[in-house]
Amino acid sequence: MIGFQFTSVALLCTMCLVNGYAGIFGDECPVELSQKTSRACQERRYRQLLANKNIYQLVPISFLPNEPIRWLNMTSDKMRAVFSKHPFEQWEFNIYLAKTVGGAEILKQWHKLNAGEDIQSFADFVKIYTFFRKAQEQLGDPYFKNPSDEEPFQNIIKYWMRDKVFAEQRLAGVNPMTLMRISTDRENVGLKWSELKKVLNQEFDWENLLINTPNMPKISLPKAISSKMVFVLRYPLLDYLPAMPDIMESRPHRKMWDPTSPITFFAVHPNNRNNLIPIAIQMDVKPGSPVYTPKDDGLWMLAKLSVQGADLGYNQVAEHLAKTHLLLEPFCVSKDRQLSENHPLHQIIKYHCRLGISITDKLAFQLLLGPNENLHKLFPYGYRGAVNIALKSYRQTSWKDTDFMGNIKKRGLDFRTLRYFPYRDDGKFIFDTIQKAVRDYVNQYYECDEDVQSDYELQNFMNEVSADGVGIDGGNGNVKDLPNELTSVDSLMAFLTRLLWQLSAQHAALNYPVADYGGFTLNMPTKLYQDSRVSDDVLSLFNFPNANISAQHAIVAFSLTNYRYDSLFDYGSQLPDKRGRDVISKWFNFLQRRVQPSLEKRNQNRFKGDHLTYPYLLPRWIPNGVQT
């Protein structure tokens, strides 16, 4: 039954004995399931949630009223008024606002120091990157740090041109979510070769691609695909995006490249520890688009840079914004509407929603996707293209996309075919730990399936967030493929594990690498240019964006990606109930004392083996929630 209800002891399963109705004789209500607390506490919880529903409401985005996205119904001014005084949120909220103001001041300072100057050498790009990185870090310790300054890390400034570094960024960089294995029609994973062929340039000799590639097995491409050796980057959401006017570059001898949807082929060599190697890039999905290979020198370098820019934009808009921020916001809003502060799940979810996706979404959305704002300035498809990507991505996104290992398997990226994949391997360690912590926590409060079924606050929460919800609040969150009720302890554990993973580690993996890879223009230029001062087949300084674009690029990257307020499960000592306090403290210590050293050793071995390291899923660098 959806809605507030009183539950008598007789309705509880006989196996799930209630340990007394604390709160009957005192003013303090305990941390307890909604049906297991006293009638007085149930009434108090009901009144609290009723008041919260007037403050926190889920509505369509005002300027996208016909879209399925739901977010908090507050203006930016009201949000500042509410959260700047909120007893739980105010400290971090005020730090976040100071960071936002500080970033704007840093950009003003750079323009003042560099007025009228433009790029004169490749070293100038390094100076811009370094200026903004250091300036952002100086905003305040300990919240503004980059793990690459403290952990073993390959120098991207030095190695950005290497093919190996280009390949490994698919596995340890800003976007570990797009690479897929090319599969045969008999398989149900990856991208089928029969489908991929439909968008390839038929004039290119795909059959002999590996045969014509130095240091690769001399076998046909179809045979290599059957042997599970070939992988691809493909961005359907970028197909046929129109260009918008370049509002950051007006010089007539510089023409911005149109947006493209490149297709990149990689292969693994069985005799080279199955390391990923780039072997071909088709520049776009448009018929007749040129294909370049490592033998094409300057054109190959330009092709790689085109992929890098496409990958950065796709990651930040589709994977990061749509599939993380926008997907998860309803959960953080609804937890205040449907789960009492005394509910065991509210007790922990609030730490993973602290500051709130709602705040970062509301304050940053227009600054990123508005006309003449950041993504309009940075990417050739402008704000219209960015909004198009975000909407298409969100429409295709469902709760199924939060299945961490399912996603890895679906893309055909198992260990046997791809040995080096830090996001997968380190992520599994973190995911498994979250899963164990959730199991222990849930078992403290839910003794049987009937406990889950009778917890009306939990059921109301699920009913509101799920797109299949019913009744007055049902379906407000509009999350597809999310059950509108939970019927077992196991289903609750699976749901909560995924939610905490997405809010913490998954967001960390998609967000924080941008500071190291995405903020450096030479590595990931958001735009490329045809310049009359240089031949079209030569990589030149003049192919890159100007100083103003590069500065805008850097400040956006660092403003979004180097702020961390806390670390995963560090809040155990703050929980009022001993049961929950002991569990979360136990697993925080496990992360710090067992997981952290193991992952540090992995990174040391990667560094020694000339691989990119992956500090972003070290426990001390994973925030509890979405903080930028």
From TrEMBL:
GO terms for biological process: lipid oxidation. It comes from the Eukaryota. This is Lipoxygenase domain-containing protein. Residues 31-628 form the Lipoxygenase domain. Keywords: Dioxygenase, Metal-binding, Oxidoreductase, Signal. It holds the Pfam family Lipoxygenase. Residues 1-20 form the signal peptide. GO terms for molecular function: metal ion binding; oxidoreductase activity, acting on single donors with incorporation of molecular oxygen, incorporation of two atoms of oxygen. SUPFAM superfamilies: Lipoxigenase.
